Amino acid sequence: MSEKKIKVLIWDLDNTVWDGVLLEDKSVTLRAGVADVIKELDRRGILQSIASKNAHDDAMEKLKEFGLDQYFIYPQINWSSKAESVGIITQSINVGIDTIAFIDDQPFEREEVAFTHKEVLCLEETELDKLLDRDEFMPRFVTSDSKNRRAMYQSDITRNKLEEDFTGPTEEFLATLNLEMTITPATDDDLQRAEELTQRTHQLNTTGYTYTYDELRKFIESDEHDLLIASLNDKYGTYGKIGVCLIERNQTYWNVKLLLMSCRVMSRGVGTIMINHIISEASKAGVTLRAEFIQTDRNRMMFITYRLGNFEILKQEDNRYVLENDCTNVAKLPPYISLNVIKGKSKQECEVESEMA
Amino acid sequence: MQQNKELVRAFFGRFFETGNLTDDLDIFKAGFVNSLFAMQLIGWIEKNFSTTVSDEDLNLANFNSVNAIANFIERKGV
């Protein structure tokens, strides 16, 4: 079994983040070392939230006093059970429950969370000192996207709120965002992020193949492969590098070995735009497009995307499929997004080859 | 059947302008469709008509127009 990495740490406040109970003592003091842990986790791209039984405004005010309020997304400071708070946070951030850790000084709270969410890593506050050294909190890479992860989620919260308030059709809302997607061939600088995405992304992932940095590097150099990176911006800022696609080029068909998109952009329709871009390129090259697909209990959306994207089933063996699109129909780009395609060297060579053939 | 068509149309209306949409227009060719919409469409059919869309049902021809979807729902006997 692969070692699970924690994506979100959920903090208790009283006697965990600070010494004392805020309701009883307005002048609680920060626990020694806690600010350093919070800041370092933030730098590593591990998101942080709060599940605390407290008066919301008072607790947030106190965190502000400590200069820590901006580090937490979707803080749940209320009188609900902590299991419920953990559930809400997990859903709001849209990550797997098995990537959540929860730290609380009270055994009752830890047990209650563990009872409902068996896969959550529950930690005592005494484990705080060694927390940064634990393997689960050690991402393999810290990329520029990791460091900005919290900021990106915070702009997502602004966007989502606007989206909830918007009453017209989804496409009209998307049109207000000025979405810009860029597809580029991966460079050395992208590889850490690409590797990170192959490990972090499960829902919007067609095969779940993970590749190491070195393997990905070979694909960049290979004439038979295209490794594409998608990034996305809108008027609120950047979503960062959010998609990876690996294509293997053969004489008569291209094969999509891997297509994945970060769950954060699920509602932006970018997976389909990536596929349509590749269909269009394959169509120009006069080949068909195949796609490998390995079904899991979490990636049905990608199967639906392919199947309703005109991919026929060519082969199936248990949960492994080979799908094929004849590339005769190339869908138009939806009006709410603009697409910027940057071509690399290998791509141009391939176009020359196909013209000669 | 007519009623199902109306329901499908109303569902589409949450995502895009349906004013000029004819019952047989191929919504996938017309570029209305993205992954999320596709997923929500399948989810909506399953929930609203208490049926399951199996992997075998996931054929483009079953879902690419108002008519196709209404027919599919009818065939599922719901």
UniProtKB/TrEMBL annotation, chain A:
What is the superkingdom listed in this entry's lineage?
Bacteria
Record-linked InterPro entries: Acyl_CoA_acyltransferase, FkbH_domain, HAD-like_sf, HAD_sf, HAD_SF_ppase_IIIC
- Provide the protein name: FkbH-like protein
* Organism of this sequence: Idiomarina xiamenensis 10-D-4
TrEMBL record, chain B:
Q: What is the lineage of its organism?
A: Bacteria, Pseudomonadati, Pseudomonadota, Gammaproteobacteria, Alteromonadales
Domain of life, source organism = Bacteria
Q: Which SUPFAM superfamilies match?
A: ACP-like
Question: In its UniProt entry, what is this protein called?
Answer: Phosphopantetheine-binding protein
| Limits of the Carrier domain | 1-77
Q: Which Pfam families match?
A: PP-binding
Its source organism is: Idiomarina xiamenensis 10-D-4
Q: What InterPro entries does the record tag this protein with? A: ACP-like_sf (IPR036736), PP-bd_ACP (IPR009081)
